[in-house]
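hey
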């Protein structure tokens, strides 16, 4: 997810402890104790679980100064009821925590950097397992893979590998964890050359719902490997991964951004459509991504929105500028360019880490429909006038990744279902604290995705799981794929690996607990 620096500054949530919701007696390993454990608190968990965990692990509740930070979320509308936070200091602790939760009928939820945006996370009540202490990044002697622990973030991995002469796929925003996006596929600047984040993971060390630790790869639980590659949040807690890395052959990335006035809208989208087919029918693979936004910028215009586009090219300016000639010819009111190392170019979007009360609605598409884009522009301007409090942060967002890397991979081979799609778009706004405009923001978001989808008649609406918000209009098929065999396969793997539906708080395949 990428958004704007104008997002209101980081602010920790203070959540009140609440009671564990009682559930009927479950079968199998998730058996409730005969006495009530409803008044779960950090002192009890520390006394019972603490001695089993490695030195350096932390267990705390809402009265701890670290609690606000440990439970805060990028989307502040996500309000899980975190009764106790457990921060394991070693991978092996995760299985112990999950077994302890199972023995005591506590729900658990793994959190890394807190960028999950979907409302289903708000249904959680129980013990949150924060994996941020698990930050080891270890290059393997063959120089082809690295072991990344579950708590690593995109920024750490990019910088550490760079220091050692390598690169790999991560999400685009540095402060986001590696695993969160990866479990849903994971789009990023290296899509064009190396594929999705998940396409480069060759082995997962995970803990299953029943607390069993297993290794998952092509020869061990390969059925689960398929599910982890696109629907992974539903299946297991990852403790570490083995991920492909590549020697850094590209010294600098070229970044060029433009601001265009709205009268150029048709030209911009037509040029983008041509550009995205210009390399044997696809986007030039080294033009990692272009991020675009349509938004207000009062410093440039009081009543018209502007088109702001940034292009990221994995190589020198001279190569990039050859490809960008058609964009240079449009005529920008403002533009900048710079050549930077990969960690520095990745840092250009670090302003996207500030949290806010988000309303988002997203779509995937093959190409831009110029008529629909004009309709969206008009719809945007109408709503800007109607809702000044939302207008300050509202924007239409475009992610035009290079696709060659992930489209070279057979769509059936992973649970990530939407490989044929070329662009991700979303509408987003931040609802100010205390404002009653949440419904208006959701409606604006929903109508935006409707207009985008009306621009691809005859196609079914699709969206990227990591950008799902939990709205009623997001169907499981639109997220996990319309081919009937996909959901059938996911459900049958769910029955095999998580029969009690313990992993159900991030875009759940099975929505209600079966217990
Ligand atoms: C935690 O729960 C235990 C068991 O119910 C109780 O005895 C104890 O007073 C509680 N501690 C706090 C700090 O609330
Ligand atoms: C944990 O740390 C304490 C003090 O630092 C030490 O005495 C103890 O042996 C350690 N325990 C383990 C299991 O390493
Ligand atoms: C809050 O948590 C983040 C990791 O999510 C960490 O980098 C940061 O230092 C923490 N801030 C405070 C004030 O503890
Ligand atoms: C696959 O996972 C199994 C179980 O963890 C492990 O023994 C084996 O070495 C792994 N194979 C590869 C190629 O990583
Ligand atoms: C372009 O990026 C630079 C950072 O390199 C930034 O300062 C500037 O505001 C951006 N301009 C536009 C038009 O987006
Ligand atoms: C298109 O593909 C062909 C064969 O795969 C290759 O020879 C050619 O260089 C490619 N064209 C471009 C513009 O990369
Ligand atoms: C473009 O979108 C409009 C609706 O905005 C639709 O009527 C038209 O059929 C679309 N064109 C294509 C080629 O899909
Ligand atoms: C844990 O679950 C896995 C997958 O369902 C199963 O194969 C294994 O036997 C279970 N282990 C225990 C101890 O129940």
């Amino acid at each position: 997810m990428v958004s704007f620096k104008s997002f209101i500054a980081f602010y920790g949530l203070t959540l009140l402890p609440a009671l564990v919701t009682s559930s009927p007696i479950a079968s199998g390993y998730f058996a409730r104790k005969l006495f009530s454990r409803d008044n779960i608190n950090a002192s009890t968990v520390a006394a019972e679980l603490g001695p089993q965990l490695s030195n350096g692990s932390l267990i705390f509740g809402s009265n701890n100064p670290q609690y606000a930070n440990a439970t805060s979320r990028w989307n502040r509308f996500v309000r899980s009821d975190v009764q106790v936070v457990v921060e394991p200091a070693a991978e092996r602790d995760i299985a112990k925590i999950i077994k302890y939760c199972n023995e005591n009928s506590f729900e658990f939820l793994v959190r890394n950097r807190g960028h999950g945006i979907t409302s289903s996370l708000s249904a959680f009540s129980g013990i949150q397992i924060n994996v941020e202490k698990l930050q080891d990044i270890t290059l393997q002697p063959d120089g082809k893979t690295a072991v990344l622990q579950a708590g690593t973030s995109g920024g750490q991995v990019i910088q550490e590998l760079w220091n050692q002469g390598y690169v790999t796929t991560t999400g685009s925003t540095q402060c986001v964890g590696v695993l969160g996006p990866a479990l849903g596929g994971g789009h990023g600047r290296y899509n064009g050359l190396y594929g999705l984040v998940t396409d480069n993971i060759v082995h997962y060390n995970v803990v299953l719902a029943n607390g069993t630790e297993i290794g998952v790869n092509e020869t061990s639980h390969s059925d689960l490997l398929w599910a982890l590659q696109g629907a992974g949040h539903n299946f297991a807690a990852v403790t570490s991964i083995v991920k492909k890395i590549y020697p850094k052959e590209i010294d600098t990335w070229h970044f060029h951004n433009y601001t265009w006035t709205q009268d150029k809208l048709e030209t911009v989208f037509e040029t983008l459509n041509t550009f995205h087919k210009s390399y044997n029918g696809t986007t030039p693979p080294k033009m990692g991504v272009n991020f675009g936004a349509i938004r207000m910028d009062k410093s440039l215009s009081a009543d018209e929105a502007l088109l702001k586009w940034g292009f990221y090219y994995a190589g020198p300016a001279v190569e990039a500028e050859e490809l960008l000639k058609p964009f240079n010819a449009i005529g920008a009111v403002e533009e900048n360019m710079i050549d930077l190392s990969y960690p520095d170019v990745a840092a250009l979007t670090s302003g996207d880490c500030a949290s806010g009360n988000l309303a988002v609605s997203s779509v995937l598409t093959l190409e831009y429909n110029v008529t629909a884009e004009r309709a969206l522009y008009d719809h945007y301007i109408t709503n800007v006038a109607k809702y000044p409090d939302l207008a300050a942060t509202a924007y239409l967002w475009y992610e035009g990744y290079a696709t060659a890397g992930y489209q070279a991979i057979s769509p059936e081979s992973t649970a990530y279902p939407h490989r044929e799609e070329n662009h991700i778009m979303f509408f987003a706004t931040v609802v100010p604290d205390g404002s009653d405009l949440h419904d208006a923001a959701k409606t604006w978001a929903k109508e935006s995705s409707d207009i985008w989808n009306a621009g691809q008649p005859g196609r079914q609406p699709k969206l990227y799981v990591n950008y799902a918000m939990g709205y009623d209009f997001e169907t499981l098929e639109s997220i996990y794929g319309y081919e009937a065999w996909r959901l059938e396969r996911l459900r049958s793997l769910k029955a095999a690996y998580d029969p009690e539906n313990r992993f159900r708080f991030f875009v759940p395949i099975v929505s209600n607990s079966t217990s």
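The first strand starts at residue 58 and ends at 60. Residues 477 and 484 are 8 Å apart (CA to CA).
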